[in-house]
């Protein structure tokens, strides 16, 4: 084998090994590298109460309720399989709405009850003009798993 | 929240950065090629 | 491939290409961004902020494609010892870093009105920030090596190793739960409505041509500087 062919094979082998190792590592880290817990994870893993975690899912349709004080809201976060009731006091992002994605940071106060300190809206990969969006209902499909 | 200020900020920032990069690269190329040309003629 | 290894042949090709790519790219960028600002409808959910996409997606593509280019050029440099490949890799580094920075900045500006945050340490955002740092490290390494009269081999190895970050960026939104949404544009199609999507490929091609032109300009500058240095050295040794 000529020297340059040898170098080519060596370089490509190294490249394949590197990328392969990273892909393996990434899929192994799937749970640790997740940015938030889904309601199902939280139920399955028995997330301890009081620990600061992020909870992500869809704001269940028809679940959003405003308390009499005007700034506190209650809503349910669901991933289709499990549901958690969340409470938050403060201003929410414009994109926070029923049927849309949400990532809340806070802690579980009781099993199935979550107190949020911050609320982030998570939108999905579907972009369309208003006239194509129908009655304005929004589904963050990618959060259901 | 008003949205246009965010859009405008993003466009101005990206435009200035791209333009600065292109201009700097052009000026550097001009200078280097002129210097090479001048040296060849000597 | 070996045709381009000859600097004289390369320059014959690069000189006209610099202008053509630059001007056509600039026209397409202005057209694509103009259409994206004034002609397309707003998104039903995000509103006007969706227009940041026409900057954010091309700059993300160039940041990642730039490192892909560095890796390919680095392999060519190590395997065939083409000096021109090393120059190409070093010429890509700064534009790649700048566009990665534009991607991060426009993404941050996009995140505030949509997600409600300038920055979050999720998988996609973090891996893209790592790409920027890897670019900066590569630039510093290549400069240091060139200053000491090295052959660029260490920078080339770094260029190949750094490519592992590209699949991390790509798969981060698919395999990990992230705040960043999943892929809108895949092999099978796009989940962006046509009336919003159409200026994106225009801007994408335009920015790419502009990028090629900038890389060619930087390569020509480096080749000219090398020529000057070589001539000065010769004049120094034979007075």
Automatic annotation (TrEMBL), chain A:
Presence of the UniProt keyword Heme in the record: yes
Segments for region (Disordered): 126-145
Gene Ontology terms, MF aspect: heme binding; metal ion binding
PANTHER family linked: CYTOCHROME C-TYPE BIOGENESIS PROTEIN CCME HOMOLOG, MITOCHONDRIAL
InterPro entries according to UniProt: CcmE (IPR004329), CcmE-like_sf (IPR036127), NA-bd_OB-fold (IPR012340)
Native organism taxonomy: Bacteria, Pseudomonadati, Pseudomonadota, Alphaproteobacteria, Sphingomonadales
Protein name: Cytochrome c-type biogenesis protein CcmE
GO cellular component assignments: plasma membrane
Described purpose of this protein according to its UniProt entry: Heme chaperone required for the biogenesis of c-type cytochromes. Transiently binds heme delivered by CcmC and transfers the heme to apo-cytochromes in a process facilitated by CcmF and CcmH.
Presence of the UniProt keyword Heme in the record: yes
Major location (coarse): membrane
Membrane topology: Single-pass type II membrane protein
Binding site for heme: 123, 127
Gene Ontology biological process: cytochrome complex assembly; protein-heme linkage
Pfam families to which the protein is assigned, alphabetical: CcmE (PF03100)
Source organism of this protein record: Sphingomonas chungangi
Stretches assigned to the Cytoplasmic side: 1-7
Subcellular location: Cell inner membrane; Cell membrane
Keywords linked to the UniProt accession: Cell membrane, Cytochrome c-type biogenesis, Heme, Iron, Membrane, Metal-binding, Signal-anchor, Transmembrane, Transmembrane helix
Extracellular compartment spans: 29-145
Family under the similarity heading: Belongs to the CcmE/CycJ family.
HAMAP family named among the record's database cross-references: CcmE
UniProtKB/TrEMBL annotation, chain C:
Cytochrome c assembly protein domain segment(s): 29-180
GO cellular component, one term: plasma membrane
Transmembrane segments: 20-40, 60-80, 92-111, 123-142, 154-176, 196-217
Any one GO molecular-function label of the UniProt entry: heme transmembrane transporter activity
Annotated membrane topology: Multi-pass membrane protein
Pfam families recorded: Cytochrom_C_asm (PF01578)
GO BP, sorted A to Z: cytochrome complex assembly
Entry annotated with the keyword Transmembrane: yes
Keyword line: Cell inner membrane, Cell membrane, Cytochrome c-type biogenesis, Membrane, Transmembrane, Transmembrane helix, Transport
Transport is among the record's keywords: yes
Localization of this protein: Cell inner membrane; Membrane
Top-level taxonomic group: Bacteria
Alphabetized NCBIfam families for the sequence: ccmC
Primary role: Required for the export of heme to the periplasm for the biogenesis of c-type cytochromes.
Family to which this protein belongs: Belongs to the CcmC/CycZ/HelC family.
Record's protein name: Heme exporter protein C
Organism (species): Sphingomonas chungangi
């Amino acid at each position: 084998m000529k020297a340059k062919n040898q170098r080519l094979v060596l370089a490509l082998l190294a490249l394949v090994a590197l990328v392969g190792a990273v892909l393996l590592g990434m899929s192994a880290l799937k749970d640790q590298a997740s940015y938030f817990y889904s309601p199902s994870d939280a139920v399955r893993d028995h997330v301890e109460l009081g620990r600061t975690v992020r909870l992500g899912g869809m704001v269940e349709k028809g679940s959003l309720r405003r308390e009499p004080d005007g700034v506190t809201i209650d809503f349910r976060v669901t991933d289709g399989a499990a549901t958690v009731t969340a409470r938050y006091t403060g201003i929410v992002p414009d994109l926070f709405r029923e049927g849309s994605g949400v990532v809340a940071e806070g802690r579980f106060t009781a099993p199935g009850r979550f107190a949020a300190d911050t609320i982030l809206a998570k939108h999905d990969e579907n972009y369309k003009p208003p006239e194509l969006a129908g009655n304005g209902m929004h589904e963050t499909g990618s959060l259901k798993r | 929240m008003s949205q246009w200020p965010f859009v405008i900020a993003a466009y101005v920032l990206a435009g200035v950065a791209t333009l600065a990069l292109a201009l700097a690269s052009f000026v550097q190329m001009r200078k280097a090629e002129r210097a090479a040309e001048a040296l060849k003629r000597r | 491939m070996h045709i381009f290894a000859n600097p004289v042949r390369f320059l014959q090709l690069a000189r006209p290409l610099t202008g053509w790519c630059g001007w056509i790219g600039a026209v397409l960028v202005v057209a694509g961004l103009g259409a994206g600002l004034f002609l397309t409808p707003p998104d039903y959910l995000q509103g006007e902020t969706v227009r940041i996409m026409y900057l954010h997606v091309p700059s993300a593509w160039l940041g990642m494609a730039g490192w892909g280019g560095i890796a390919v050029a680095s392999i060519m440099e190590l395997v065939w010892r083409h000096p021109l490949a090393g120059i190409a890799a070093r010429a890509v580094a700064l534009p790649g870093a700048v566009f990665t920075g534009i991607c991060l900045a426009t993404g941050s500006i996009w995140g505030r009105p949509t997600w409600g945050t300038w920055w979050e340490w999720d998988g996609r955002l973090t891996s893209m920030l790592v790409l920027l740092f890897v670019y900066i490290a590569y630039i510093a390494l290549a400069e240091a090596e060139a200053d000491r009269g090295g052959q660029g081999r260490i920078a080339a190895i770094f260029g190949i190793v750094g490519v592992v970050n590209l699949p991390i960026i790509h798969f981060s939104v698919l395999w990990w739960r992230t705040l960043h949404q999943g892929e809108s544009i895949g092999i099978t199609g796009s989940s962006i409505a046509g009336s919003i999507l159409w200026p994106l490929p225009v801007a994408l091609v335009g920015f790419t041509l502009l990028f090629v032109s900038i890389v060619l300009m930087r390569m020509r500058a480096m080749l000219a500087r090398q020529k000057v240095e070589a001539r000065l050295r010769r004049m120094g040794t034979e007075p």
